[in-house]
Amino acid sequence: MGVDITGWIECRQFFLLKSEATPWRPATSLRFLFHDRNYDAFGCLFGVKNYANFRPVAQGRGLPEDVSPEVQAEYERWGDGAFGTSWITWAEIKAIDWEEPAELPDARIHRYLRAEDGSLIFEGKAAWDKNFAEAVGHSLIEWGPRRLHLAGRPGVGNQRQNLPLRAPAT
Fold first, then answer.
1. How far is C-alpha 83 from the geometric centre of its chain's CA atoms?
2. Which of 43, 142, 146, 165 is the residue whose CA sits 20 to 30 A from 85?
3. pLDDT of res. 140
4. 3 exposed, middle or buried (CB, 10 Å; 0-12, 13-18, 19+)?
5. Closest CA to 129 of 117, 115, 147
6. What are residue 153's phi and psi, to 5 degrees?
7. Cα(158)–Cα(149) distance, rounded to whole angstroms?
8. CB atoms inside a 10 Å sphere around CB 35
9. Where does the pLDDT of residue 1 fall: very low under 50, low under 70, confident under 90, or very high at 90 and above?
10. What is the residue range of 29's domain?
């Protein structure tokens, strides 16, 4: 079961028409920018799926009060499917120290391949790994459903994170 981030990048207009309630306008959907799941980014920015134990920059802020009508409408269409709603400004993203160490070690299994020269090459990380399960004498069939049940979400499909990102007008 995975989590995806959905949302918008909004830009602020310089002026408001009398008929407009907010200066914010949707610029682009995140679906054009995120093509895969990056739980390290999700955790660092918003504290969602934070297996790497980063100190989240913008966790749980909710939907901005002055969000654009288009983003508000999409958020309402999600209903109970939206969770972890938050937002972040471009200034906050630019100020992130990308070299800051995590608060605790990463909780996921890390997978490496050994190169011909004997060095290790990072291949990836996951919460559970078929090869690791086999190496310790367990099968994914045996452990997978129990892990889902303990997590309290048996049978739940993909969930999405709703995040309007803010970019001030320049």
1. 11
2. 146
3. 55
4. middle
5. 147
6. -135, 50
7. 16
8. 7
9. low
10. 3-100+159-167
Establish if 80 belongs to a structural domain: yes
Q: Is residue 140 part of a domain?
A: no
The SS3 assignment for 92 reads helix
Mean pLDDT of the chain: 79
The Cα–Cα gap between 64 and 53 comes to: 26
DSSP structure class, residue 84: S
Give the span between the Cα atoms of 54 and 100, in whole angstroms. Answer: 9
Place of tokens 């508000």: 72
Phi, psi at 13, each rounded to 5°: -75, 160
160, 78 Cβ separation under 8 angstroms = yes
Report the length, in residues, of the chain. Answer: 170
**Cα angle 129-113-55, degrees, rounded to a multiple of 5:** 60
**Domain annotation covers residue 24:** yes
Which residues share a beta bridge with 55?
none
- For 110-154, what is each residue's pLDDT tens digit? 888 899 999 999 888 876 777 777 777 766 554 443 333 333 333
Are 50 and 65 contacting, i.e. CB atoms less than 8 angstroms apart?
A: no
> Contact at 8 Å (CB) between 143 and 1?
no
